[in-house]
Amino acid sequence: MALCGLPRDVFTWTLWFGTLDSFIKHGGHSVSGMKLPLLPLTWGQLSTILSPWSLVFGGATTAEHDWHHEKFTTNYSLSFQYLDRLFGTYHPGRVAGEAMQTPAPAEPPKTAQYTTLIESTPEDWVIQGQAFDSYKASGHIVANMLRLVENMKGELGEIGARVDMYEHSLQTATRARRAGADDETIVCALLHDVGEVLSGTNHGEIAAAMLRPYISPQNYWLLANHEVFQAYYFLDKCGGDKDLRDKVREYKDAGIVKGHPWYEATEKFCLEYDQPSFDPTYDSDSLASFVPLVTAVLDRKPFWWEPADKPESELDCKARLAFGYSLDARGPRSPAQNVRG
Question: Rounded to 10 degrees, what is the CA torsion of 273, 151, 210, 163?
Fold first, then answer.
């Protein structure tokens, strides 16, 4: 090695060449096949000559080490690849240049051909039904619902309280979950105030309308009217009547008064979950932790709670609309049977 002008200290030489080799491999481009000027060799051949121990211990290629930086769970070694093979952390990586190849153009999705609903055909509605079911199956509806909560984070959700409406929503849902509420009620707690940044005095109706096909009539009523029950804890401080919930004529006419299950459920929701959830020190669960619950509720057949033997003419009119949007709700059975699952 001395005759070649190379350092006598093999460790120093290994460190020097290893640094150069590491720099090249971290560049993300494979140059092992590149021909060198003035030498009848490629860079890969020269690397093997200058570090012959790689023939025994193995040396990672650029593609292999690039995979390490993408996944962080494989190909830890640059110079002693046998260790990765020994401990099962080796991965061949991608073929050099593969990412540069132009993929074949995807076939455009089928679309309905009408420009007005009057001229639409049954074939158009098969296409749209399939598209709607695919849209739902892909998780887009769940994502859209959760995005309504995320949009209340920070400035867009600040309405003068010590927490924004995003944190308030997480707190309410977390309290419901830790108190042992059922999954449907927890989802209602998470989404109950998504309308407050749109229309304060009737914001409950916004969340209730969105979830109506998927939740029980009791929880639908709870969402639509929770702001009236919530007022019990603050409206007198604004010059209003805190006992409004006991003076609403529509409630009395429907028999929804103290002692009624819907009244009691809404009172409990506001007292235990909603009204205490403005605490900046509370340890709320993450939004991601509620995704399985929201998914499960939105995966239900629309208006699942309708009795199976209920005549079609007596079904909620929105329940009879369900098969117009979803191919899953159609089939050999009647539309009314399908929307009920």
Answer: 20
Q: Are 284 and 167 in contact (CB under 8 A)?
A: yes
The DSSP code for 72 is: S
> Which residue reads 């604004």 in tokens?
238
The DSSP output letter for 209 is H
pLDDT at 333 over 90: no
Q: pTM value?
A: 0.67
For the segment 105-125, what is each residue's pLDDT rounded down to a tens digit? 778 889 999 999 999 999 999
DSSP string, 30-44: --TTPBPTTSS-BHH
Cα–Cα distance measured from residue 194 to residue 337, given in angstroms and rounded to the nearest whole number: 32
The C-alpha atoms of residue 134 and residue 75 are separated, in whole angstroms, by 38
Identity of the amino acid at 329: A
Residue 338 and residue 330: Cα distance in Å, rounded?
Answer: 6
pLDDT in tens, 220-240: 999 999 999 999 999 999 999
Q: Report the distance separating Cα 163 and Cα 280, nearest Å.
A: 6
Report helix angle 291-298 to 183-191, nearest 10: 100
